[in-house]
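Researcher: Here's my situation. A collaborator sent me these components and asked whether they could plausibly form a single complex. I don't have experimental data yet, so a predicted model of the whole assembly would be a useful starting point for our discussion.
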Amino acid sequence: MTSGLKAFWAVLTVLTVIVAFWYAACVPMNIKGVLTEQERAGAKVQPPSAKDRRDMSEFGLVLNNSFAIPATWEQDRPRLPAPHQVAIEMWETTVQKKITSKRSLIYHGWVTLSATMLGFAIGTGLGILLAVGIVHSRVMDLSVMPWAIVSQTIPIIALAPMIIVVLYSVGIQGIIPKAVISAYLSFFPVVVGMVKGLRSPDAMQLDLLRTYGASRSQGFWKLRLPASMPYLFTSLKIGIAASLVGAIVGELPTGAVAGLGARLLAGSYYGQTVQIWSALFAAAILAAGLVALLGLIERTVLKRMGMAQ
Amino acid sequence: MPTDPNNNSAVVEAANLDLTFQTNDGPVHALKDVNLTIDKGDFVSFIGPSGCGKTTFLRCIAALETPTGGTLTVNGMTPDEARRKRAYGYVFQAAGLYPWRTIAKNIKLPLEIMGYSAAEQEERVSKVLELVDLAGFGGKFPWQLSGGMQQRASIARALAFDADILLMDEPFGALDEIVRDHLNEQLLALWARTGKTIGFVTHSIPEAVYLSTKIVVMSPRPGRITDVIDSPLPKERPLDIRDTPEFIEVAHRVREGLRAGHSDD
């Protein structure tokens, strides 16, 4: 068997195990709700009293009412939706909806993506600038770096509403506050990675430039910056995922107008778990796509630079 | 090539040179009372155990370290002035080529920094690639070359701007002996063709004797010169000169010098 085929089977096995586990988990998670529905529809359930059922363990209920198992995968508002329910919801809200529709996941995904990209661009730019400052100035290293670290210890969920309120009070709303929150999360990995990258040339490399009488800026453009590229791309991959989280969190306090965060919030308001899960998957797929895209850019750039073989 | 201290062709002159590093474990006396004259066209090897200050002395010449006592002139200037006048090219133990630059672009690095025109950069690159026998490899990236070829490219980089002095800090230390022999032979040919003054740090006795017109034997704690040997070997040196009695005699004297330095501690 070739290694490619082996890898394929390995991936498929893991996927199958996860899906099987998911279906299995749906049964005890949803059984109580299902039995209530079945009872209303006239089926005989064990025990017949809702009060007794409430005190019983989920596994006991499943054993007593095994006829109800298939129904745990087909509820309208399950506690835990089954994989195919999420898949159908995603299919219906992407392919079968016009992208201008407020129910289209692509529309909401785009709203979140645009805030993510803007925030990522701001965060990356800010991160690189800070890193350059930190590497070139001891004062900045001592004064900025601790604040950068502290900034990441504050839970973003606590900070996000304040950022939105403060910006709203000065008349800024819409995509900008979300992008600011997104930038707040994504600048940090870029600072850390770029500081490490810009400092990666060893003493010998720096001595060599000294023997040429190179200026600081020549040292930066010819040695430090190119040497930092592999570090930058690693940071960008972490940064873009953080950006997406920031954009989604930024959508929560605004009252669920649009975006994947809004879908999550609206879903939880109305108990639409299928909608929550499909928004979660949309976010995960988006993040995976963005990271993969960066990986592709990384390979292309490093190859052109001669740093990848 | 005999040494005459009054000869005004002296390229490097060190008098009572002292260097003490202040470290957390207290002062380290890296160089003590070093007196040495290197004449134009000399091939001088510095040999000694680690910690004897041979690399430190080379770095002083290159103005990468600042002596704490005595005087040191390079081409009649302070080492710092000499560096700004591009008096020397420096070759480190590792080739240190930039992985994101081709060989030709690596050799252009000092030329770009020093502001040579694009046409002149091209011309010089092809000239030095020829000198180190790497013509045709300009478009390759460093990882596509063997260790020996990479080190030759780094020598080419040091030769690209017209420095009269070539300072080499154990340039072949990381290479295997067969490659090293080959590079030594090439280095001698290059030296003969270009007439550069070469300062060469090594801890291989055969390498020092084979290459040098002058061998400086050093010993550690504190780093100092224990012997300076003017080689009686002819300038023309095939590899098998290493089996001649003259060669063996010089090598013997170097070994004696190293042993004398060691018995001190």
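Model: Some features of this prediction you could bring to your collaborator: Chain B has eight helices and nine strands. The first helix of chain B runs from residue 54 to 61.
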